[in-house]
Specification:
The protein is α/β, with parallel strands linked by helices. Helix content is about 30%, strand content about 25%. The structure holds guanosine-5'-triphosphate and magnesium ion. The site of guanosine-5'-triphosphate has 17 residues, from α1.
Length: about 450
């Protein structure tokens, strides 16, 4: 794999933001400009991700980037549709992404998913830049395809420029409201103290050279030491999705952030109950465009190195969870690795309080989404776990001091028979639903009725 020379891995960049603000378009534009300008195939499509090697970054960035100043291999972009799947982008260290690009439509400004994303970025301490997208929609905009933003900005009329300025300052104001000091990126000296705002257009490619330059520079300056990993060591990754795939059965779409995974490796995967211990049957990546007409969508490869997006086919994956860890056992003890995975699952990043309700959900992603909804509704959560409602959850609920907290809210889970009986005996109320907001609403109604 060309994207991992030496022992510096590719930084993982999450692209996130409100629906329709242009995340996918921006990635398409990066892919497209590189294919037109240079040799096709330099950019490789991964499962759930796109790898942009350094030579492509420097090609797109033109005079903005001198490739000899860098030794990181490039950037691996993850496109995150919708905010719920973004909440599954977690890893051992907290956030799966090393850096993030928060895409904001300059016309729309902050929207609910923008705020949701900011909150996750803040919680996980993930460094990010803001791509102020769709600058081409400013009335009267005169585009210069793929130009650096300052060049094209200066070529606009005063009227267009001041309209853009106004929108950018609104955005900077909104960022400030969210607790982040920010400025147009060329005025930022210290990217750790200030968020860089980069005006871009995914439609015309304007500002895309700047975006790649800033990301590459940030990664090189601030993240190089974190990228020094043992790339031949046992692989570690996060499950993005568990999917049925014809001819393979249940498969895992994984972002590998550390080490190497090989065909035949024993892996441990976080699951609903016990972690799954299984063996890699196939490692799959998407076929290159030229070969796409063949029946098979995937190419079976012998090994993959971090950072990468890949599909793992293996037996017994039925109970695997999106958002859960995947570990290659390597020459370690299986039991040790199982413990590691269990410990990680136990500490899902849900804020819990001393006093509150118990919540259970079917996946890590939905658990976090449920916990977020609870937080918005200001319902305190004492314990949040993945799995069916079991007697020990009832025992946990009985420790609540306030009777209105002697409850368990279950999202997409079953209630085990003995848990139901125990709940009856102990006077613990159970709520279950497969709609998050329904669950929150049912609980709120229950509280209101009690207080009447
Ligand atoms: P979700 O994945 O659904 O959350 O949306 P997204 O953020 O990936 O947005 P997407 O890239 O699908 O873009 C949404 C719409 O905005 C599409 O119709 C794009 O063509 C349009 N769009 C995206 N970027 C730009 C831009 O820079 N300029 C203009 N004029 N349109 C854009
Ligand atoms: Mg999209």
């Amino acid at each position: 794999e060309s994207e991992s020379p030496g022992d510096l891995r590719t930084p993982i960049v999450a692209v996130l933001g409100h629906v329709d603000h242009g995340k996918t378009s921006l990635l398409d534009e990066i892919r497209g400009s590189a294919v037109i300008d240079g040799e096709a195939g330099a950019i490789t499509q991964h499962i759930g991700a796109t790898a942009v090697p350094l030579d492509v970054v420097s090609e797109v960035a033109g005079s903005l980037v001198d490739p000899t100043e860098f030794d990181l291999p490039g950037l691996l972009f993850i496109d995150t549709p919708g905010h719920h799947s973004f909440s599954t982008l977690r890893s051992r260290g907290g956030a799966l992404a090393d850096i993030a690009v928060l895409v904001v439509d300059v016309n729309d400004g902050f929207q609910p998913q923008t705020e949701e994303a900011i909150r996750i970025l803040k919680d996980t301490g993930t460094p990010f830049v803001v791509a102020a997208n769709k600058v081409d929609t400013i009335p009267g905009w005169n585009p210069t395809e793929n130009a650096p933003i300052k060049q094209t900005y200066e070529a606009q009329t005063d009227r267009v420029r001041s309209q853009l300025d106004e929108k950018l300052y609104e955005l900077i104001g909104e960022l400030s409201g969210a607790g982040f000091s920010s400025d147009l990126y060329w005025r930022v000296q210290d990217f750790q103290a200030n968020i860089g705002v980069i005006p871009v257009s995914a439609m015309t490619g304007e500002g895309v050279p700047d975006l790649l330059t800033v990301l590459m520079g940030l990664a090189q300056r601030y993240m190089k030491s974190e990228m020094e990993v043992n790339i031949d060591g046992p692989g570690a990754g996060t499950v993005l999705e568990v999917k049925d795939e014809q001819g393979f059965g249940k498969t895992l779409d994984v972002i590998l952030y550390d080490g190497t995974v090989r065909k035949g490796d024993t892996i441990v995967v976080g699951a609903k109950n016990q972690p799954i211990v299984t063996e890699v049957r196939a490692l799959l990546k998407p076929r290159e465009l030229a070969e796409i007409r063949t029946e098979k969508r995937f190419e079976d490869v012998p090994e993959m190195q971090a950072a990468a997006g890949l599909k793992i086919a293996a037996p017994d994956l039925d109970d695997a969870m999106a958002g859960a860890p995947v570990r290659v056992v390597g020459d370690r003890d299986v039991a040790t690795v199982v413990e590691e995975v269990e410990a990680e699952l136990a500490e899902v990043a849900v804020e819990t309080a001393e006093e509150g309700v118990v919540v259970k959900a079917d996946t890590l992603g939905s658990l976090e989404a449920l916990a977020n909804a609870m937080q918005e509704a200001e319902i305190p959560v004492m314990s949040a776990e993945v799995g069916d409602i079991a007697p020990r959850d009832v025992a946990m609920a009985t420790t609540a001091d306030d009777d209105k907290h002697r409850t368990i809210l279950g999202f997409n889970v079953d209630v085990l028979a003995d848990a139901e009986r125990k709940a009856d005996e102990e006077n613990v109320r159970l709520f279950d639903s497969d709609v998050i907001y329904q669950l929150v609403e049912d609980y709120e109604t229950f509280v209101e009725e009690r207080e009447r």
